[in-house]
Design a protein that fits this description.
Radius of gyration: 20 Å
Number of strands: 9
Largest sheet: 6 strands, parallel
Shape: globular
Bound molecules: fe (ii) ion
Distance between the termini: 38 Å
Helix content: 40-55%
């Protein structure tokens, strides 16, 4: 029998070019009193920039910049939470940035109301209390972090990349402003957008089926094709399309699972420290055996946009590194089972996994 559970999705969102100007309204009723502290967690890229001047800041509010040079770690999240706890509890947490920043905001919000450390909550449904009211403002489209029920963190002590998968991780409100993605560099725009394409391909190819997830994924794929197979993927219309595709793709994942690409990508991120979205693309580029038509389409999209996917990354690694890559990949039992069934370890022997990594 298929598992039955109530699904939590983002309840409220504001989608429009220029939507950021309405953040004050989005906070209304939650953190709009003079003493209601709002904690802004913002990608360090925006430090000192124009975006900060546009926020409805009050004296009680605080801004913390999130260093996104590396992906969020459990230790990094714990350090942020300790800093926030030195001041009065915020009434709302607003995350402004890409997937790493949004995930950081979700994790901090949850840990402010739940005891213990970030690592204690890596897994499924371990968060018992709702976090602080949280608002997500994505500034690049594709990870689906704005919609998903997870926040991915690297746990270096355990060689594990895993999120807090929980209903309490879902943002309460979103501000979806496609104007904010206008300045994203081409390569990053493509790699991040492809995260949605890959989520949906993996989800639709999996053994586990869910009609809502399928419908979201179908539509998100259609939008991705419209964006990435046309000439200007960054036109105003395409930025809005991709923002919606990302939201739909992230919503789909709440009811389904990813497949092969994400576990291999997590291996790359853990061992070679490549970022999530570029790692996904590096993996997708060698998935002919498992996702033949999607791999071909992926290459056509990269060619249409003139984006070069990095290659040669894993050709000459030590046996110890291949072993670490294997371990950090095979640990993701849920998506691998979704892709290959219970016998996924028989298909993905150490030799096979090493061969796949070598092709990258
Ligand atoms: Fe992803």
């Amino acid at each position: 029998m298929r598992p039955v559970r109530i699904t939590k999705t983002v309840g409220e969102y504001l989608l429009a070019p220029g939507a950021l100007a309405h953040l004050g309204e989005v906070l209304r009723g939650r953190a709009d009193g003079q003493d209601d502290r709002v904690l802004y967690l913002i990608d360090h890229y925006f430090r000192g920039g124009k975006l900060i001047e546009r926020l409805p800041l009050k004296p009680a509010d605080a801004i913390l910049y999130v260093d996104t040079a590396d992906e969020p770690t459990t230790d990094g999240i714990d350090a942020l939470v300790r800093r926030v706890r030195q001041n009065p509890m915020p009434k709302a947490v607003v995350g402004i940035g890409g997937g790493a920043t949004l995930d950081t905001a979700k994790a901090v919000s949850n840990l402010l109301t739940n005891d213990g450390a970030a690592a204690d909550y890596q897994g499924w449904d371990l968060v018992s209390r709702p976090g602080v009211f949280k608002i997500g403002v994505p500034t690049v489209s594709g990870t689906g972090a704005e919609a998903s029920r997870t926040c991915v963190m690297m746990n270096h002590a355990r060689n594990l990349k895993l999120g807090m998968n929980s209903d309490h991780t879902v943002f309460d409100r979103l501000v979806l402003d496609p104007d904010l993605t206008a300045t994203v560099p081409r390569d990053q725009y493509f790699f991040t957008g492809m995260d949605t394409y890959i989520h949906c391909v993996e989800s639709l190819s999996g053994r586990y089926r869910h009609a809502f997830a399928d419908a979201c994924s179908d539509q998100a794929l259609r939008l991705c094709r419209a964006v990435f197979l046309c000439e200007d993927m960054r036109s105003a219309a395409n930025r809005e399309r991709l923002m919606v595709a990302s939201f739909l793709g992230g919503s789909a994942i709440g009811n389904s699972y990813v497949g092969l690409v994400h576990p291999f990508s997590a291996g790359l991120s853990m061992v070679l420290h490549t970022h999530h979205c570029v790692s996904n693309c590096i993996v997708m580029n060698v998935m002919d055996e498992f996702y033949p038509s999607a791999t071909e389409e992926f290459r056509r999209m990269a060619a249409a946009q003139g984006v070069a996917v990095p290659r040669g990354l894993c050709r000459q690694l030590s046996e110890q590194q291949y072993r670490a890559l294997y371990e950090a990949t095979i640990v993701h039992a849920k998506p691998l089972t979704n892709a290959l069934g219970d016998g996924f370890r028989d298909v993905l022997s150490f030799d096979k996994v090493r061969e796949i990594f070598r092709m990258m």
